[in-house]
């Protein structure tokens, strides 16, 4: 026999949370209660700030009467209110609140903070509440007249409810709907709704406005111009009605219905059904009107306490009042339906277009006339070609010593010329005195090495410094991924070999050195390095001297030998260059078949069949703006304004571009289209994730506060999280993390481009905080976005090139060739037209 279970009294915490779940069902319910509190406090301006649909943050600020300091201790306890004392008061209640449960319920499921100031207080007071109790006594603080209520982490202790409200966009839409309805019904109160961190409000109305004006602002002029105003008063049933409804000219796919009874926003199924029946004879099927109805019924005839969220009320003579309202609406609509207004687009009259007219309008109408185009005016003449290239791109500089020579070129030029002149005189004197070839070569080498001794020492010192930064020397090859590597060149040997080949002609050597100093910069061409390494890399000065003739010929013989040597060198260079160009052409032909050019440096390519990655690629292609793509595909680089802004020309227009945004989008698309096919940048010494996280938390961008917890614990959490995901990051993103929690490598997204080392701590920190690791597609998207964000930061001190060279010759060629610009770039000033040739022609009258 089964015995009945013992009845026990529920714990107070359980009771309070159950009650809170009934009253506060979602962020919009909480906001509704707080708006009504502000209206009860006679506020004239109400500002709401929302983050993540109100789940993360919901803040409301008003300029009402405020809360007394003595009342702050019990303001969040259940059944505490200033609007109701006896049960009989419910019969004539005129305020919104009467149960005293809203703030108490919110404090049980969220962190609640109240800042308030009354007119007789000298300062404001702030208090925090948890489970209806004060966390600590109210503290004085600066503040304006009124009350500010902040709700953080709503439903943090109700996991099921929090998961059910995961769609933040839907929650924000419901919040917006609540504010719009109260703004229309309370035109004397100004409402402002903002998203956290944004300056532009989503909803904004001014105080002392009108209902008609607010409808025009919030719902648009198509609704406002079709409104009918109806007033009705009935003494027998003791009610008044004010309505704004659209006439039969207006139709909508869904019904917009605002109902206020005694200033409360409520729902009424009978009234809504009555409106649908009334409009049936005036509107086409499956179309609906806009209706705003405000009923003021004798308080003794209304029961407001019939629903936990107060969104329903009951009143006496309900059927009779609804019938009266229906007759008034029907009478107004019938009188206005005698005429209809239709808004149509004017249709142009049909015109017979002759062949001659087509020839004038369309020069390419006939193939015979397509070549006979009209003369282009100077103001529309494009004088540049987007396919042209600059010589700077092919500058064959092979050592960082050239960078030092460039900075000191003004001082070294004079000394170099003087040294060469002295050398020329000395050689000519030696020739007259029959000095041997070996003596000349030794003198030349001594002079050149003496001039460059300090420069060589600086280079060796810089190369010998240990560093954990990304360096070309630290990059080695692996079995699965290609790795960029750069061999050191012995500059002394290189200089001596060149001097041996050109010792016979001192004038030519002087000119070559002078031109080298003037033209040198930080660019290193890959093909030039190959040729130099092949010719000089495996030889030293002794081997080269053995190859030279040991006899002592005259000057003419030596010149011929040197000419032959240079011809052989040029021939080898030309052959290598032809091979490299042919290989490049073959590669481009293979890659042109793809929709997006692959920038992977790997010799092979893995086929990606993951549905999530394919969907992300599809989103990029669907969101591509064809007009901007046309502009970028024909761009001509003009110059850099700074590290962020760049000028380009496309057609007859001049544009200013946000390089960082373009680069970030480019690297994001490279991450998607080269997914799991990246090259690898290896660090010479692995970097500790823990140390990187600590450095990241110390930056201002991280926004760390003591409330977040100790930095050491957060850094350990970052390390443990990334260690857990190490296998996946290595497999798909070439981000290698060893078992000790050290970062060993990063992916190569663009050849000859290296990210800024200073941004690595924030990058590691954001990988742990901004990536949704629970779902595949958002996870891949977030990692790609964060990696693109990190790579888009321009490195001011590049290993081989300055930032201007990288921008012009590495980033923008890739942007021109492959970037699929998203549609929002057209209106967020990423690409902004600043002038055009026709506009400039009007000012200067020439081009």
Automatic annotation (TrEMBL):
Keywords: DNA damage, DNA repair, Nucleus. NCBIfam families: mutl (TIGR00585). Transmembrane segments: none annotated. GO terms for cellular component: MutLalpha complex. Belongs to the DNA mismatch repair MutL/HexB family. InterPro entries: DNA_mismatch_repair_CS, DNA_mismatch_S5_2-like, HATPase_C_sf, Mlh1_C, MutL/Mlh/PMS, MutL/Mlh/Pms-like, Ribosomal_Su5_D2-typ_SF, Ribsml_uS5_D2-typ_fold_subgr. One of its GO terms (molecular function) is ATP-dependent DNA damage sensor activity. This is DNA mismatch repair protein S5 domain-containing protein. It comes from the Eukaryota. GO terms for biological process: mismatch repair. SUPFAM superfamilies: ATPase domain of HSP90 chaperone/DNA topoisomerase II/histidine kinase (SSF55874), Ribosomal protein S5 domain 2-like (SSF54211). Pfam families: DNA_mis_repair (PF01119), HATPase_c_3 (PF13589), Mlh1_C (PF16413). Residues 215-334 form the DNA mismatch repair protein S5 domain. It is found in: Nucleus.
């Amino acid at each position: 026999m089964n015995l009945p279970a013992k009845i026990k009294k529920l714990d107070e915490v359980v009771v309070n949370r159950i009650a809170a779940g009934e009253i506060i069902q979602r962020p919009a319910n909480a906001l509704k209660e707080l708006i009504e509190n502000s209206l009860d406090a006679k506020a004239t301006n109400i500002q709401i700030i929302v983050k993540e649909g109100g789940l993360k943050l919901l803040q409301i600020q008003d300029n009402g009467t405020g809360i007394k300091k003595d009342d702050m201790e019990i303001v969040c306890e259940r059944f505490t209110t200033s609007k109701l004392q006896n049960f009989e008061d419910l019969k004539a209640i005129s305020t919104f609140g009467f149960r005293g449960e809203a703030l108490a319920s919110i404090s049980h499921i969220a962190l609640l903070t109240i800042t308030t100031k009354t007119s007789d207080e000298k300062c404001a007071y702030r208090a925090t509440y948890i489970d209806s109790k004060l966390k600590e006594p109210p503290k004085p603080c600066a503040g304006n007249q009124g009350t500010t209520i902040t709700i953080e982490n709503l439903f943090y202790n109700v996991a099921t409810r929090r998961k059910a409200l995961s769609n933040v966009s839907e929650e924000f839409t419901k919040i917006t709907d609540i504010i719009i309805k109260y703004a229309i019904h309370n035109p004397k109160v100004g409402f402002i709704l903002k998203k956290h961190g944004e300056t532009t409000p989503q909803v904004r109305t001014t105080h002392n406005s009108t209902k008609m004006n607010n409808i025009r602002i919030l719902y648009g002029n198509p609704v406002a111009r079709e409104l009918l105003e109806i007033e009705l008063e009935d003494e027998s049933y003791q009610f008044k009605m004010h309505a704004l409804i659209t006439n039969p000219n207006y139709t909508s796919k869904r019904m917009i219905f605002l109902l206020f009874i005694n200033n409360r926003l409520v729902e009424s199924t009978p009234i809504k059904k009555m409106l649908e029946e009334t409009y049936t004879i005036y509107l086409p099927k499956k179309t609906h009107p806009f209706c705003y109805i405000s009923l003021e019924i004798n308080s003794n005839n209304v029961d407001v306490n019939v629903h936990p969220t107060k969104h329903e009320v009951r009143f006496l003579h309900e059927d009779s009042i609804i019938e009266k309202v229906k007759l008034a609406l029907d009478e107004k609509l019938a009188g206005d339906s005698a005429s209809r207004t239709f808004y149509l687009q004017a249709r142009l009259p049909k015109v017979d277009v002759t062949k001659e007219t087509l020839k004038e309008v369309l020069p390419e109408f006939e193939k015979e006339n397509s070549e006979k185009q009209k003369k282009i005016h100077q103001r529309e003449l494009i004088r540049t070609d987007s396919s042209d290239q600059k010589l700077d791109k092919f500058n064959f500089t092979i050592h960082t010593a050239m960078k030092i020579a460039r900075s000191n070129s003004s001082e070294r030029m004079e000394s170099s010329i003087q040294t060469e002149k002295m050398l020329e005189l000395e050689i000519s004197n030696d020739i007259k005195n029959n000095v041997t070839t070996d003596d000349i070569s030794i003198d030349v080498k001594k002079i050149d090495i003496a001039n460059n001794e300090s420069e060589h020492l600086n280079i060796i010192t810089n190369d010998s410094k240990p560093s954990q930064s990304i360096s070309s020397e630290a990059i080695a090859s692996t079995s699965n991924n290609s790795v960029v590597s750069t061999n050191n060149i012995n500059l002394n040997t290189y200089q001596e070999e060149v001097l041996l080949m050109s010792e016979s002609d001192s004038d030519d050597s002087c000119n070559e050195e002078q031109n080298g100093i003037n033209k040198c910069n930080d660019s290193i061409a890959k093909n030039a390095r190959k040729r130099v390494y092949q010719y000089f890399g495996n030889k030293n000065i002794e081997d080269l001297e053995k190859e030279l003739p040991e006899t002592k010929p005259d000057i003419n013989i030596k010149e011929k030998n040197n000419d032959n040597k240079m011809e052989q060198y040029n021939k080898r260079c030309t052959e290598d260059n032809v091979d490299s160009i042919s290989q490049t052409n073959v590669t481009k032909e293979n890659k042109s078949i793809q929709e997006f050019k692959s920038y992977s440096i790997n010799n092979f390519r893995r086929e990606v069949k993951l549905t999530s990655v394919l969907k992300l690629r599809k989103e990029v292609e669907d969101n591509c703006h064809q007009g901007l793509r046309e502009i970028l595909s024909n761009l001509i680089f003009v110059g850099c304004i700074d590290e962020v802004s760049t000028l380009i020309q496309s057609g007859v227009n001049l544009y200013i571009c946000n390089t960082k945004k373009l680069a970030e989008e480019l690297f994001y698309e490279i991450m998607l289209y080269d997914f799991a096919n990246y090259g690898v940048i290896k660090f010479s010494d692995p970097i500790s994730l823990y140390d990187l996280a600590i450095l990241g938390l110390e930056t201002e961008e991280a926004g760390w506060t003591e409330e977040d917890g100790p930095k050491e614990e957060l850094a350990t959490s970052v390390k443990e999280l990334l260690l857990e995901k190490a296998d996946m990051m290595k497999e798909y993103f070439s981000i290698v993390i060893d078992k000790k929690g050290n970062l060993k490598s990063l992916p190569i997204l663009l050849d000859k481009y290296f990210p800024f080392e200073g941004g690595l701590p924030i990058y590691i920190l954001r990988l742990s905080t901004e990536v949704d690791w629970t779902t595949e597609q958002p996870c891949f998207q977030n990692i790609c976005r964060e990696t693109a964000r990190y790579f888009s930061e321009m490195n001011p001190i590049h290993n081989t090139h300055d930032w201007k060279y990288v921008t012009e010759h590495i980033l923008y060629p890739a942007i021109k060739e492959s970037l699929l610009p998203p549609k929002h770039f057209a209106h967020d000033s990423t690409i902004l037209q600043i002038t055009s040739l026709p506009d400039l022609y009007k000012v200067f009258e020439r081009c």
